[in-house]
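Run log, item B.
One chain of 181 residues. Sequence copied directly from the ordering sheet:
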Amino acid sequence: MMVFYSKYKWLRLLMGVFFLLAGTLTVIVNFTRPEAIGETLSISLAIVFFLIGGISLIATLINEKRAVYTPAILTSSLLIALGVVLCIKRDLITSIIVYFAAVFAISIAIVLIIRGILLTRYKKQTAAFVTCFIIGGILLAAGIYALIQPGQVLSMMYVVAGVFLIVYGITEIVFGIKMLK
């Protein structure tokens, strides 16, 4: 992919600008029209998946002309298919994202707590096991709260997703500008 970016330097700038716009749009819509945020995020993510999947597919087809199959073709196709699904089922994000994040947070919390228990055997690892217990406890509480109050957590998750897209967009723009020099 980096070879592809070095040949088409403007592409990285274009993707960075899009991510920046998608993140800004997500944050603005969350505060101005919260009822439309799920649809906005679904469309934004669908476009992101189309862009990443399409660019990756084109890069693979250009750079690996003799390859019959590469994992990049499968990944690109799955991203494009996920984009299509998000365009068709725009409420999919709002119906599963909180539960997915809650279960993910609880799973990580359990792993961290188990790791903390295992680290208690080593006397010099006091800071590590205390950190595991604290972060595990916070994630466990956040996951349980998200399962109990999914509506309140959803708005916060959209803001976090928007900020993530903004930061990623700025990063891509900075690297794109460096590549143009």
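Observations after the first pass:
- The chain is about 85% helix and 0% strand.
- The chain has a mean pLDDT of 81.
Flagged for discussion on Thursday.
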